Amino acid sequence: MQYRRNARIKVMQALYGFSQDDFVPVKSLEKQLRDRFEESYKAYLYCLLVIKDVCEFTDTYADVQASKHLASESERKVSRRLAHSTFVEFLDRNETFKKAVKKARLEKWLDEDLSRKIFYQLKESPLYQRYSQEDESEGVSDDEILQYLFEELMANNEDFENHIENLFPVWYDDKEIICFAVRESIHHICKRSFKFHDKFKAKLDDALEFAIELLLKSIDHTEEYRELITPKLQNWDIERIAVMDLLLMRLALTEILNFPTIPVKVSMNEYIDISKNYSTPRSREFINGVLDKITKELKAGGKIYKEGPGLKEN
């Protein structure tokens, strides 16, 4: 589950900072986690806001073209369809969205030059040419053009990525879940089948609850899990073991021993996979080897309890 993967990474980052400064209060780590999840939600809202801003620039562009001296027939009739799309009208009316944007003060971060640049890139695309010449009942839909706008001209656009990552550093880790939520919102809004009730926020809240429990249990059992890990390091060069590897193994053991509904293999594989991006090239083999030995001993001693279909022997 991608939301839990991101939660694990945020806990790992918080605990890594904690390992460098033992005087950081646990409450500060909790606040750090909450702030990072809130930042993910703000990045999601901001993506929707930028899409809306680009769409609304259509009206500005049409006004400029029509006001030209001796404007041609085509310039006087530039399509305004995107500015009055279902998506824009929905966000304009939706109080939940407007209140969330106002509370986070997101409008001040809008970059007029960036929105204009994205619009002109969109305007030159064959898809937009078709969209602007057709009505709502045929051809390219609002959903299709907005998915293209977001996916091609924002999420995979270097200028936008630099812009949003400067505002919301969590973009680097959370891009996948944020983009999925934005694409889902576009689709449901355009199909008029989506009541804006913060589905993404609800999923983030669930992941935050998991993250805080993981954080606190890991801290509570630090010495206990260190004692499980240390004897398994006899054949390794202690000086060359990365702090991050020890931290990832501790988190894996926290899950294995305290989260009965998560399979052992899932916990092991998750942290082994995370090590590929956040630790050393040899970490995967090292973490897998140590955790495998520990879990076998814990299972043999009846110390791992799992509940749920197919989990009791996992």
Beta-strand residue percentage: under 5%
Q: Which stretches of 5+ consecutive residues score pLDDT under 50?
A: none
Mean pLDDT: 89
Structural class: mainly alpha
Task: Compute the CA-based radius of gyration.
Answer: 25 Å
Q: Counting H and I runs of at least 4 residues, what is the number of helices?
A: 15
How many independent structural domains? Answer: 2
Distance between the termini: 18 Å
Q: Which of globular, elongated, flat, extended, rod-shaped describes the shape?
A: elongated
What summary fits the major beta sheet? Answer: none
Number of strands: 0
Specify the helix fraction band: over 70%
What would you note in describing this structure?
The chain contains 15 helices and no strands. The chain is mainly α and 314 residues long. The chain has two domains: 2-207, no CATH class; 221-300, NusB-like (N-utilizing Substance Protein B Homolog, Chain A, Orthogonal Bundle), CATH 1.10.940.10. The longest helix has 41 residues, at 26-66. The model has no long low-confidence stretch (mean pLDDT 89).
